[in-house]
Amino acid sequence: MIPWAELDANRQLQLREDYARDPICLTGTCSLEAKTAHFAAWLAVRSVAFSTADLSPARRSGEDQSSGRS
């Protein structure tokens, strides 16, 4: 499997767009953990490895991006 971080930005964008168009992406949850696991499973079928380590630092820590607060 190819690590997500090793994909160039254009390939990452293409995969995110493909996932957004796929009806399977509708997880029915607001849980970031569940959404991340679902996206990782979707990518695994496409030979791409993704984990919480691939999320932006603010999302990993739960920090509110708009105010900089947790």
Automatic annotation (TrEMBL):
Protein name according to UniProt: Uncharacterized protein
Q: Its domain of life?
A: Bacteria
